[in-house]
Automatic annotation (TrEMBL):
This is Uncharacterized protein. The chain crosses the membrane at residues 6-27, 356-377. It comes from the Eukaryota. Keywords: Membrane, Transmembrane, Transmembrane helix. It comes from Tetranychus urticae (Two-spotted spider mite).
Length: 410
């Protein structure tokens, strides 16, 4: 009896150890919170209009006589850095570098009061949805902002919920020569970015496209873009995303810290012209002390978590030149439907909680659970044994009964 008890205890201990080890492996794999990514490529018939940011160097956003009169010494000194000619054409030949060196000298009050109005740059917009100008109907809006180097024109087309307006690919192809949106830009030099409203990436600060008008030429720019959406998972999953406007938080941090330490706006931001009207920007080229670098790194650490839902655009711009009369030089920008697919990247749990619960339940059932079929078989065997025992008792009682003999009549 003692050996049987020891053997049974050993079996139970062995099974318990195996169960604990398997449960540990199962739980460890779940607590790793691994993520797998699935990429879906698709071509949507309804295309969202991105936010278009047009960057105009300051010497082309003002009356040049105003800049040369009010900022004569600074304008000429910077201009000579980029030109060897007596007439100082450095603001033309090195327009971007000139604007980066000159822009921080302009207070926001001068930018707001003396820069050209929006109508001077873009007078009308055409799109595939109707013959109406979306600027007139209020479906699209252009706002001016200031940065350390450029006047920024932001074109946004939003619906009532604040999401980008959608245009029909089919209508663009059939009714508008494949053009989704097009307009003329009255500017000598233009740099362009595309962004999704409220979901702009902090890292997406490079200049994507650049064009310049030539004398006697009409510059036509065809822009084809694709949208790339990425959905991440929040903590505790390894993607560690967060729901917030990263770009807005980053720029607010830069400006608040820069104003506190230097009294100047950060060179890496763009601000509305109705705020900070008497302030200046910090120069991107004159940051000799370490404060600008410290501020930038501190704010970058504040937005180190990626956004749970982010959108970026990739696009190509082709440029064609056509002859035109002198004085009619313009940049025509056409946003066109492309045959290249958009992409959606979905992050999903590699080991979901539902699977973990199912496998955990199966593991417990395997080692400690009670099989329904086994229990039914046990009940049937018990009933059979009971019935057989009753039959045996009945037969035995019959066999033990005394035999009574009857005498006949003689």
């Amino acid at each position: 009896m003692e050996r049987r008890t020891i053997f049974a205890t050993s079996i139970r201990t062995f099974c318990l150890v195996i169960f604990i080890f398997q449960f540990y492996l199962l739980t460890r794999n779940y607590l790793r919170f691994d993520v797998r990514k699935e990429v879906i490529n698709y071509i949507a018939n309804e295309i969202e209009i991105p936010e278009v940011r047009l960057l105009i160097p300051y010497q082309f956003a003002f009356d040049l006589n105003f800049l040369r009169t009010k900022y004569k010494s600074s304008f000429d000194a910077i201009c000579r850095k980029f030109s060897d000619k007596d007439d100082c054409d450095g603001y033309l030949t090195n327009s971007v570098l000139f604007s980066k060196s000159f822009g921080h000298l302009l207070p926001l009050s001068d930018i707001a009061e003396h820069s050209f109005p929006v109508k001077r740059f873009i007078n009308k917009i055409y799109w595939s949805e109707s013959s109406e100008d979306p600027l007139e109907t209020g479906k699209c809006k252009i706002t001016k902002k200031a940065s350390a180097s450029y006047l920024v024109l932001e074109l946004r087309c939003l619906d009532s919920s604040g999401s980008p307006l959608r245009v029909s690919r089919s209508k663009a192809v059939v009714f508008n020569s494949n053009y989704l949106l097009d307009f003329s830009l009255n500017a000598t030099v233009m740099l362009m970015k595309l962004a999704y409203p409220g979901k702009a990436l902090v890292e997406d600060s490079s200049l994507h496209a650049y064009t310049i008008t030539n004398k006697g030429k009409l510059t036509s720019c065809g822009v084809r873009f694709t949208k790339h959406t990425e959905n991440l998972l929040p903590p505790p999953y390894k993607t560690m995303c967060k729901n917030y406007d990263r770009r807005q938080v980053f720029e607010e941090c830069l400006n608040n810290n820069s104003l506190t330490r230097t009294g100047l706006l950060s060179f890496a931001t763009a601000v509305p012209l109705d705020k900070h009207t008497k302030l200046y920007f910090n120069s991107p080229y004159l940051n000799q002390n370490s404060s600008a670098l410290e501020i930038y790194e501190d704010c970058l650490a504040l937005v180190n978590q990626p956004r749970c839902n982010s959108v970026r655009y990739s696009f190509k711009m082709t440029t064609n030149l056509q002859d035109t009369a002198s004085g009619n030089e313009q940049i025509k920008i056409h946003f066109m439907a492309t045959s290249e697919p958009d992409s959606l990247t979905e992050s999903k749990p590699d080991f979901p909680l539902f699977d973990y619960l199912i496998l955990t339940g199966s593991l417990f059932a395997t080692w400690f659970g009670i099989s329904i079929m086994g229990q039914l078989l046990s009940v049937s065997q018990l009933l059979c044994l009971t019935f057989d025992k009753r039959r045996a008792v009945d037969v035995e009682s019959l066999n033990n009964e005394p035999v009574t003999r009857t005498k006949g009549w003689s």
